[in-house]
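pls design
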């Protein structure tokens, strides 16, 4: 099972991960990213290139399947305006054993942050907004998988 969804609709982690526990394995690992207030942020806005983004995320899942013994994986990512406190991304992996599920989940979120074509703008309480540059820490985490 490989699931990729990019949508402006609110995310439910339960729905995003549905089916992973039914694949006959012994482990399901997940990560849920939530929009947070970094110094007056009230919302983030995520843009993507439809078609290209989904293909990029599916390539990451395919790479995870090639590296670990996975039974399934899911990436559900929100686009559009996301208020502080709302879910932005859910990543999950299922496998027979925990190590594969945990490592694949870490790989997927780390690589998603640098490899998937999303653009992020932060909106602030004073009415201003700014496009966000890539973080060096995200690049460092992604590089550990190469």
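designed seq:
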């Amino acid at each position: 099972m490989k699931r990729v969804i990019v949508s402006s609709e609110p995310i439910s982690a339960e729905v995003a991960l549905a089916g992973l526990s039914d694949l006959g394995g012994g482990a399901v690992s997940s990560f849920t990213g939530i929009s947070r207030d970094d110094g007056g942020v009230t919302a983030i806005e995520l843009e993507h290139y439809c078609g290209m983004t989904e293909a990029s995320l599916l390539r990451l899942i395919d790479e995870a399947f090639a590296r670990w013994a996975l039974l399934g994986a899911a990436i559900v990512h929100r686009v559009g305006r996301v208020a502080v406190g709302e879910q932005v991304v859910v990543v999950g992996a299922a496998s027979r054993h925990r190590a594969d599920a945990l490592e694949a989940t870490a790989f997927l979120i780390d690589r998603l942050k640098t490899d998937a074509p999303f653009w992020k703008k932060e909106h602030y309480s004073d009415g201003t907004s700014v496009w966000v540059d890539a973080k060096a820490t995200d690049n460092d985490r992604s590089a550990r998988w190469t």
